[in-house]
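Re-running the complex after MR caught last week's input typo. The corrected sequence lines follow. Everything else is unchanged.
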Amino acid sequence: MHRYLARRLIQVVPVLIGVSLVVFFLMRVSGDLAALLLPEDATAEEIEALRQALGLDRPIYVQYAYFLRDALRGDFGRSFRFNLPALPLVVERLPATLELAAAGMALAVVIAIPAGIIGALRQNSLVDLGVTSLAVLGRAMPNFWVGIMLILVFAVILGWLPVSGREGPANLVLPAVTLGTGAAAVATRLMRSSMLEVLRLEYVRTARAKGLPERVVVYKHALRNALLPVVTVLGLQTAGLLGGAIITEQVFSWPGMGRLMIQALYGRDMAVVQAGVFVFALVVIAANLAVDVIYTLIDPRIQYEARR
Amino acid sequence: MQASRRTALFLSLLAAVAGLTVAGCQRPAPEAQAPGPPPVKRLVVAQGTDIRGWDIHNHNHTGTEAVHMNVFDYLVYRNDQGEFEPGLAERWELIDPVTWRFYLRRGVKFHNGDEFTAEDVKWTLERVATDKELVEWGAYRQIKEVVIVDSHTVDIVTHAPQPVLLNRLSRIGSGMLPSRYLQEVGWDGFARQPVGTGPFKVKQWLKDDRLILEAFEDHWRGRPWLDELVFRAIPEDSTRVAELLTGGVDVAVNVPPEDWDRVRRAPGVRLEVAMSNRVMLLEVRQHPEYATSDPRVRAAVEYAIDNQAIVDTLIGGAGVPTRTRVTPGNFGANPALYNTYLYDPERARSLLAEAGFAGGGPSITLQGPRGRYLKDAEVTEMIAGMLEAVGFRVKLELFEWSAYSDMRTANTHGDLHLIGYGNSLFDADLAFNSLQCDQRTAQQRYGYCNPEVSEMIAKAQVEMDRDVRRELYHRIAEIIAEDRPQIFLFQVANAYGIREGVRFSPRLDEMLPMFDVRTGP
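Corrected-run output:
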C-alpha cells in the first residue's frame, strides 16, 4: 500500500508540469496582459511601457523558464489585483471551497444512498418513479438557476436563510444544496441501478435462501458491493463539485477559490490563475487517490500490494 | 460489527447535515440589540467587485477608488458638483507655468499616529510619476518632481504647463500614503494593515467577501457619523438586489435595468438613476482602404443610427444620446452636442447614393465586445440592423473582451467598432488627447489627422486661462463631431438601490464618499 501510494505521488509531478504548461501558454495566448490592465483609452506608448516593465516583451519560452524556476520554489508570482504573493492568496481561500464542496458532497451522499436503495427495493413502484424523476430533475437543472431560485424562495420570499456571504452555518445551507443537487442526482441513479444489479446476483440469492432477513441481505451483503461504482463516481464528482463551486460561489458571493479564480481570469491576474489551477489539480489528484484508498476499505478483494 | 460501524457513520453524517440545516434555518440574530451600549451605526454597501488591493497607484478600477477614498485623502477634492475643494492641501497657487505650490493642512494624522507632512506628498507623487510598472503612471508622468519647501509646503513641478493638474490630483491614485510607515513595513506589510489619513480606517478585509472599515476618531474633518462602514463584494446582480430587498445591504451599486421595477416596487428601498462619465461610441477607420474613409459614408453611419431607440429599448432609458465624449460635468463640455443625435435614415440613404452606393452597400465590418458593457452585444447588433436598413452591407463580429482588446491593440479591427470611454480626469484633455496627428493611436486606430484640431488640442493642453481652454474644447468637439473619427452613441447611467433613510446620493464620478452619510429616520 505504501509503495503504491509513493508511486502514485511520483506520478503527480509530470501531471503538474503538464498542467503548468497548458495554463501558462493558454493565459499568454488569450490576450495582451498590458493592454488588458490599462484603461481602454491608454495610448500605444503606455501599453508598450507596461509590457516592457512586466517583462512581457521577452520570448515566451524565456518567460516560461522563469515561471517554472520560481514555481518550483513555491513562488507563483504576485497577484496584480491584490499586490500579494499568489500562492498564499489561493491557499487562504481553499478552506471555504473545501467546506462548500464537502457539505455538497455530504448532502449528495446522505440523499443519494438511501434514495437509491429505496428506489431499487421498490422498483417500478410510485416511490421508485418519484426517486427517478427527482434524480432526472436534479441533473437537468443548472447550478446557476437552482441557486437563484433557492435565494428567491428561502431568502427573499420566506426569509428563512441569508442570501449570500459566509458568516455562519446558515450561510452554508443554500450553496451546499445548490452544489449537492447535481451530484446527488447522479449518485442516486447510479446507486439504484447498482443495487438492482447486485440484488440479482447469486450470492444475494444464496443469502436469501439461507433465510437471512431482507434487511441483513440488503445492508450487510448487497450494499457493500453496490457502493463500489457509486464511490468511483463520487470521487470523479469531486472535480465536478470544485468546478460547480466556481459558479455556486459566484451566485452566493462565497469567498472561496472559485470566485478568486473567476475574478483572476476576468482581470488577467495570471499569477493567481496559475497558482489556482495548480492547487485545483492537487485537490483533484488527492481526491482520486482517496477514492482508491476507500476502495480497499470497502472491498477487501482489492489489495494494491498484491497486484504488483 | 462492520455493519454497525457503517450505520454509525451514516447516522452521524445524517445528524451533521440535519444539524446544519436546522442551524441554518434560524434567522441570523439581529445585531446590536443588546440593551446598554448604543447600536452600532453601520452602513453596508454592495458593489459587483471587491477592491483591487491597497496599492493605490496600481489599479484603474473605479469601484476600488470609490472605497479607497474613504481610507485615503487627496490633496484636493472634487465635490459632487465637480468643483475643487481643499483636502489635505488647505490652499494652492500657481508660482509659474510649471510650478504649483500646495500649502498642507497641519495636525493631520495617519491611522497609525504618524503626522502627515511634505515628505509624504513627495514620496507618494514621485513614486507614481516615475515607476512605469504602475498602472497609473500614464496619468501622473506629467509631474517632474515634488520639491519640499518646508514641512507643510510643497512645490509640484511639471514637465510642461499643466492646466489639469488639480484634476490629476483628485482622482484614482491621488490618495496620500504614509511614507515612513511604508518604508518600514514594505508593500506586503501595508497590504496587511493599510494606513491612510481618511475618515475610516481598515478593521478587517475578507477578500472577495467584505471590507470592514471603522470610524477614525482623529480625522481632520472630525469623526464620521457612521461607526462602521462595510463594503461587500457581490458579483451576481440578482444576489446583490436580493440582499438589498432582504435588508442585507443598505446601498446596492449597479442595479441592472431588468431589476429596476422590482426595486421600485419593494417597500423600504428606493432606486436612484445617476449619469456616469462613460460614453459609448463607435471608433471609425479613415484609412484609405476602408469604405469609412469617405466622409459621406461616415456621415451616413451616424444618420442611420437612432441613438434614442437604443437607449430606450436596450438599456431601459438609462442613457442620454450625445454627439461628444465630453459630457456635462467635465471641463470643456459643449452643451450643443449633448442630448442630441442626427437620426435621419433618408439622409443616410442619399449620402450613400452620393458616395456611389445607390444600388446598395458599401460593405463594412462592425465589431463589438460581448460582456464588457451593459448590453454591449445587443447594442452592436441593433446598430448593425440600423445600418443595413439604410443600405449598408454589414459584417457583424462580436468578441469576448480579451480577444477584443487584443484586436484593438494589434490594430486589426475593421471599419467600425464599439467601445465605452470614461473620463477619470473630468476634463476634455483626456477625451481629445489621442486624436492628435502625432499620436500613434490617431494614426493606427483611426487613420485620422486634422492639423487644425491637433494644433488646438496642443494649445489647450498648456493653456492656463480656463475661458480660452473652454472655447478651444468647444470648437474641437464641433470639428470632431463632423470629422467623425468617433461616432458617439450615448452617455451611460448607473442605477443604485438605496434603503430608505440612507442619506446618500450617487455621483457622476461613481465615487462613494461616506464621511458624512447618515442613516435612519
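None of the earlier attempt is carried over here. The CA atoms of residues 57 and 487 of chain B lie 32 Å apart. Residues 1-34 of chain B have pLDDT under 50 and may be disordered.
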